[in-house]
């Protein structure tokens, strides 16, 4: 079937089998191989992309259902000479070993920090009203949908915390 | 995955009786990839106007397409129905909650590993073939309301809180109707493949909640990992106290039966009484009287008892005496 996907600001017209997941459409049809396939069943988070700014699992989304939303992949967050703040922090903190989970971690963290900024509570929040600080416990809970086989978790949390703090300082200054 | 035709519905009337509804897709696509479910036709309902949370007869109406994350973060839900926010936040992951819908969450299927594995006998997947779980690994299986045919559990969290809040499911179709959530999921009996009262051609359009009852609200989930794991047992509790006595007690249990479980007798024994461990033990005795374990999940019976005792102590402000 004919579908139009909007990815990283560009529109793409594709002819796809309705069974194609958004993940396979990105990787196999658009050559955007930054988004990874770990489990293909919603369990690992390697395929995390942003859909209208919200983090989702591309492996459990049909491409044909995603034709009127804006999709952002890791390639759309930053480039090697213009890294996103989170990409920079992952480098600075060694937030990876093999790197396979990293695009999903960074896309997920990008969406997650927006959720904290919007005042969304989490399972570990003491109260439901907020505001919520990006504490270690909050980040670990909110990022539990992203597994890291290399167990780089300590550095991943540190990178995200640093980005969260830098982000709120930028807001204070503005 | 088997081939299917894809259709997008623009109104509830567009939903053909023979097609399988897809909303967030997080359970259906998982099962379709494994060919545990193999629908010929999918109807995408995500463009229907069912994504609002709005006041309803002093309570709330939650559209079937409201995403789990939006529902958990809704200011009115957080303030008036905190047990619902807590249950949602205890389920799945941030990404999945952004996709999962209210209707799909109610309809999610069991996580019994034998149901997922097509090489195994399973009366739920293939009626009449047997039940490979019995005698197998049953960590997540039922201790209440099971049958010889099937010992699977309903795995969700949200519905457990909705049950404690006396939610009602709104259904559209040839004959629109409303069904209390307590009557929506079915016990396996002889027909474990029939899981809810929903009929082909019917669509869940929303869930309503009665006016808030206040009180202390808790959702306590016990699982093998601290996050991102299904419940071994869970409890949604809404407890109100007046002059030192329990005046309202709603207790719903997850991970223990094919439906979110509630026991009116276990609640009734608490009413008008002062909280005490002896009283809570009485409620647990009533709840667990019909409990039966079919294998290596016998631990769930004492686990549910202890979890209930701890939840009631917490919600009534009683210090642990043991
Ligand atoms: C790794 C993983 C971990 C998870 N952990 C948890 C957890 O801890 N707790 C928990 O509660 N859940 C958990 N889930 C399950 C998740 O919450 C469900 O998959 C989700 O809620 C289903 O909603 P959906 O909109 O994606 O449904 P879909 O997958 O779109 O549909 C599910 C079923 O509902 C039917 N359906 C959907 N909408 C309607 C409607 N309006 N009317 C009639 N029928 C409808 C579909 O036909 C289908 O049969 C987990 C899932 C995964 C993949
Ligand atoms: S417990 Fe139910 S779902 Fe699991 S194998 Fe037996 S019949 Fe199938
Ligand atoms: S590949 Fe999508 S969650 Fe693992
Ligand atoms: S860095 Fe190897 S999986 Fe996370």
UniProtKB/TrEMBL annotation, chain A:
Gene3D superfamilies given for it?
Answer: 3.10.20.30, [2Fe-2S]-binding domain
Coiled-coil residue windows: none
Domain of life of the organism in this record? Bacteria
Domain named 2Fe-2S ferredoxin-type: residues: 1-77
Record carries keyword rRNA-binding: no
Transmembrane as a keyword of this entry, yes or no, is: no
Q: Which SUPFAM superfamilies does the UniProt entry name for this protein?
A: 2Fe-2S ferredoxin-like, CO dehydrogenase ISP C-domain like
Q: Which UniProt keywords apply?
A: Iron, Metal-binding, Oxidoreductase
* Protein name in the entry: 2Fe-2S iron-sulfur cluster binding domain-containing protein
Automatic annotation (TrEMBL), chain B:
A Pfam family assignment: CO_deh_flav_C
Transmembrane intervals: none
PANTHER family hit by this protein: ALDEHYDE OXIDOREDUCTASE FAD-BINDING SUBUNIT PAOB, XANTHINE DEHYDROGENASE SUBUNIT C-RELATED
What UniProt keywords apply to this chain's record, in alphabetical order?
FAD, Flavoprotein
Tell me the superkingdom of the source: Bacteria
Q: Where is the FAD-binding PCMH-type domain?
A: 1-214
Under the heading SUPFAM superfamilies, the entry gives: CO dehydrogenase flavoprotein C-terminal domain-like, FAD-binding/transporter-associated domain-like
- Quote the protein name from its UniProt record: Xanthine dehydrogenase family protein subunit M
């Amino acid at each position: 079937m004919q579908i139009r996907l909007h990815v990283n600001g560009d529109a793409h017209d594709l002819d796809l089998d309705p069974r194609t997941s958004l993940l396979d459409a990105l990787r196999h049809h658009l050559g955007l191989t930054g988004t990874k396939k770990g489990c293909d069943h919603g369990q690992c988070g390697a395929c995390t992309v942003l859909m209208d700014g919200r983090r989702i699992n591309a492996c459990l989304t049909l491409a044909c259902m995603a034709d009127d939303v804006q999709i952002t992949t890791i390639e759309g967050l930053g480039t090697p000479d213009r890294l996103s703040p989170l990409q920079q922090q992952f480098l600075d903190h060694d937030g990876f070993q093999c790197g396979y989970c990293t695009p999903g971690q960074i896309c997920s963290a990008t969406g997650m920090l927006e959720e904290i900024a919007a005042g969304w509570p989490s399972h570990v929040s003491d109260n439901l009203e907020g505001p919520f600080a990006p504490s270690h416990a909050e980040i670990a809970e909110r990022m539990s949908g992203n597994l890291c086989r290399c167990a780089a978790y300590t550095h991943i949390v540190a990178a995200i915390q640093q980005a969260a703090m830098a982000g709120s300082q930028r807001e204070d200054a503005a | 995955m088997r081939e299917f035709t894809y259709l997008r519905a623009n109104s509830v009337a567009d939903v053909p009786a023979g097609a399988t509804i897809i909303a967030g897709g997080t359970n259906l696509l998982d099962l379709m990839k494994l060919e545990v479910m193999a629908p010929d036709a999918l109807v995408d309902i995500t463009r229907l106007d069912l994504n609002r949370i709005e006041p309803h007869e002093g309570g709330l109406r939650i559209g079937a397409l409201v995403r789990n994350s939006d529902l958990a973060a809704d200011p009115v839900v957080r303030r008036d129905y905190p047990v619902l926010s807590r249950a949602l936040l205890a389920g799945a992951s941030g990404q999945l909650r952004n996709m999962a819908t209210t209707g799909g969450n109610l309809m999610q299927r069991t996580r019994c590993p034998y149901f997922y594995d097509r090489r195994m006998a399973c009366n739920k997947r293939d009626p009449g073939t047997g039940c490979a779980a019995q005698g197998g690994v049953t960590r997540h299986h039922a201790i209440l309301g099971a049958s010889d045919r099937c010992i699977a559990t309903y795995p969700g969290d949200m519905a457990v809180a909705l049950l404690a809040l006396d939610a009602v499911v709104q259904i559209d179709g040839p004959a629109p109707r409303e069904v209390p959530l307590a009557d929506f999921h079915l016990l396996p009996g002889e027909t474990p493949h029939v899981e809810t009262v929903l009929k082909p051609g019917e669509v869940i359009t929303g869930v309503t909640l009665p006016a808030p009852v206040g009180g202390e609200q808790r959702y306590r989930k016990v699982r093998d990992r601290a996050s991102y794991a299904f419940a071994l047992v869970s409890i949604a509790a809404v407890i109100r106290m007046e002059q030192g006595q329990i005046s309202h007690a709603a207790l719903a249990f997850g991970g223990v039966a094919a439906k979110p479980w509630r026991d009116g007798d276990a609640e009734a024994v608490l009413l008008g009484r002062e909280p005490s461990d002896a009283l809570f033990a009485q409620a647990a005795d009533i709840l667990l009287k019909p409990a039966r374990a079919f294998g290596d999940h016998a631990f769930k019976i004492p686990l549910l008892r202890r979890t209930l005792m701890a939840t009631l102590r917490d919600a009534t402000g009683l210090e642990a005496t043991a």
